[in-house]
Amino acid sequence: MLNDQWFEQLPLAKITSHQPVSGGDINLAFKVIADNKPYFIKVQPNRPATYFDHERDGLAALEQAIKVPHPVAQGEIEGNAFLILEWIESGWEDQYKLGQAVAKLHQITNDKFGFSTNHKTKVLVKNNQWNPDWVDFYVHQRLLPEVEAAKSNGVWNDWRAQHFDKMVTAFKHYYANHSVQPSLLHGDLWAGNFMFDDQGQPLLIDPDAVYGDREFDIATTTIFGGFEKDFYNGYQSVLPLGPGLNDRLSWYQFYYLCMHLILFGESYGPSVDQILGRF
């Protein structure tokens, strides 16, 4: 447990209080008051300061198009990595605005797929090495490493392997004739990773930023709910999605659900199998 002496070493002046807050299942999270100003602090125990490089760089990239909690400082104290972010007071929702903001994010493009930093998860390191080919990037830098992790965690079987191969074949076949523009993605766009400030402005938090197919972000929004029709209407008003989208969501939904299968076990097996069963 982090004590008062640990918090006093943060690069903030006149710390008067600190208390745990909800911040997901990956990091410890705290609200710290310093010099009468609130801050949001993430801590990853037993990690170097570089642990938060990917999130810091992702926030900086996203900030070109949408509001994010601005990074204040990062470092390491007593072997624990920390990231200090500005504190955002939450307010009312406007999902149409959120959809427009995500579309504007996707309008930031690159000539290659990947990102400047890799992302270390609990079970693997996501390889973001720059790649000019979307099919090669998604198959070899996302899908196949994930399947290896699923095998290592004992949540893979012959049936899944057979249908996975069919899904990859369909994916390759489609994109052999359809080009993809590398768009800046949030990379983990579920409902827990957006919020609205006290002026109703949408924010994105906890990015896993990468330049990829924008339909990957859209697919993620469809899995756990929380995105309303207004969100998609707002998105379409800025950057319309191509016809046949629903036929293409499966191979991106698979990646997200398979990661949950690896992390949380067979409770996600039926969802993964439902997708694989389409191929």
Structure, described:
With 279 residues, the protein is of the alpha+beta class. It is built from 10 helices and 11 strands. It has helices spanning 4-8, 53-62, 95-106, 134-152, 158-175, 214-221, 229-238, 245-248, 250-264, 269-276; strands at residues 15-20, 28-34, 37-44, 71-77, 80-86, 119-120, 125-126, 183-185, 194-196, 202-204, 210-212. 35% of the residues are buried.
Topology pattern, helix = H, strand = E: HEEEHEEHEEHHEEEEHHHHH
Report the mean per-residue pLDDT as an integer: 95
Number of strands: 11
Low-confidence stretches: none
Overall, the morphology is globular
For the termini, the CA-CA separation is 48 Å
Largest sheet: 5 strands, antiparallel
The helicity comes to: 25-40%
Q: Compute the CA-based radius of gyration.
A: 20 Å
Q: Helices and strands: which structural class?
A: alpha+beta
Strand content: 15-25%
Describe this structure in a few short sentences.
By secondary structure, the chain is of the alpha+beta class. Helix content is 39%, strand content 18%. Helix 3 crosses helix 7, helix 4 (134-152) runs parallel beside helix 9 (250-264) and helix 9 (250-264) runs antiparallel to helix 10 (269-276).
List keywords for this structure.
about 280 residues, alpha+beta, 10 helices, five-stranded antiparallel sheet
